[in-house]
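1st attempt posting a full record on here, be nice pls
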Amino acid sequence: MKTLSTTKLSLAAARRLSIRTQGIDGHWKLAQGKEGAAQIVERLGYVQIDTISVIERAHDHIIQTRLPGYTRDMLGELLASDRRVFEYWTHAAAYVPMQDFRYYAARMATAHKWKRDAAWRKDNKKMVRHVLARIRAEGALASADFEHETGQRGTWWNRKPAKIALEVLFNSGELMVSARRGFQRVYDLRERVLPAHIDTRLPSKEEVALFYARRALTTLGLATTAQVRKVYQNHGAEKALHTLLETGQIAPVQIENLSGTYYALPEILNACPRRLANHLHLLSPFDNLTIDRDRLQALFDFHYRIECYTPAAKRQYGYFTLPMLWNGDFVGRLDPKADRKNKTLIVRHLALEPGFDSYDAFIPLLVQALKRFALFNACQDIRLEKTTPHKIKATLTRALKTIS
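the predicted structure (as tokens):
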């Protein structure tokens, strides 16, 4: 096969292509219910897990964005009962498709050499054996099941030794997450979690790098070498992309007004949409489209940072703002809080980008998006506290009162 010629894309087309491959524009034909949730994880390649619960957690939010009617129990069943997904590391902790297990198993096989894990295992062999023995004898256990045991507190983030042992064994794949108890991981032996039909043959480093490179391009649509490397911590990304390029499996792409070379699969380039439907999404900070902040700024000219770890007095937009995507552009951010006791979604701050003035077309869609998001968070009412610019607060407040 010959190297494909460079494709030139307008910035608007590149944005549409990226949104389409993320499944945000409604183009994906998904099954209803739990099967649709499984299809999303399998098409995205991963769904990031996060602990922040000021609204529904990130992994549930990411799926709900693409699957109206999604409920959190669906992902729990896909993990604990159906074994369609499992937990492991991509660039962060994530739910990943069970069908991809062998490529993660290759990473698990190297965990004994990870500097921190190796050092801790060497100094805590007895604890590792003890944790494994208890799970082998008693079945799946969580960290809380070891709380009655005494022992010195560990120096690893000041966690108790049994919890560290569970995480070290999880990293190496000797234990897998069997289920979640509340939000706490429940661990079991790998052979009791992994379905019998799953391919466990270890691929070579080159095969792993190629797999992750194709995975990244399938879901990002187009990406630079650095962006492909970042998604799955794919240290072999450069060589893999070179191989894919030389064999004609990917094409180089030049995007209008952007420097550097992007890469894309030909079948994705050929399916680049000419327009997007009129829609508005409140995206998770950890959504697959928004998580790479540098890519988000380069491709969408949207500077976004999460401020939950910033002191309150120094926050510009709010504690946990959600980027707002409207018809291919990021037009602002919204800082919500689900007051579950009073079943009220509180919009603490709605901030639109400087220069935005398409209020007549935007506000009706925003009202509907807020209604959907309130229901997803088990809220019946919506309360707006602050807007930037301030002049839209009264109009939006009146519009929200019409929600039935």
